[in-house]
Amino acid sequence: LDASLHALAHLLFAGQSAESILQAVALLAIRTIPGCEAGSVTVIDGGKPQTTVSTSEIAVAIDRQQYAKGEGPCLEAILSRTVVRVDSFDDETRWPRFVPTARAHGVNSSLSLPLVVHDAPVAALNLYSRDRGGFVDAESIGQVFAAQAAITLANAIGYHRATELARNLTLALEHRDVIGQAKGILIAQDGVSPQEAFDILRRASQRSNRKVYDLAAEIVARNTTNRSTS
Question: Which terminus in the chain has less CB density within 10 A, N or C?
Fold first, then answer.
């Protein structure tokens, strides 16, 4: 467990994508949590659950049936923000439309652990076993593992948001620079004010249904070409 928690804590520093981090979480869960034979991560995307990563086709099939039926332990874990343990699907009565699927795939017990980020349940770690009572002695370990996995996921989300923000800011600065150059060209050519130059760009954008930046870049490129040929 200590080794897996250490690995989780350092996943982000390897510069991996969010999906590869979740895949590592699922694989570490298989190795760390006693009784676990298959695992997956359910993520809520646009209000809908989807299996982002899994360690076997059985896990994917069981997850999909939960989504299709609108019930099951992984959905319950996300909605209730609590750990949901099933010791035997033979005796399970909470999800009558889903239970036959688990039995049909030879899964007899499960453990679903919510991954809560910034007080919002954004995912669930789903663990499945062919043994009845497969997670009776593993729930506490699973909770510790899930807590660290949620921290790792939160860090990954924060990292990728910060990266995207930096990219957008860089792009905005580039656009502002090109638009500024285009305005300068219009000011020099037409003798207009800076505001009038921008209004010319804006009206041309509306007429042609093109972005202001694209028009500005075209003006700058054309001006550069004219200067190089003159």
Answer: C
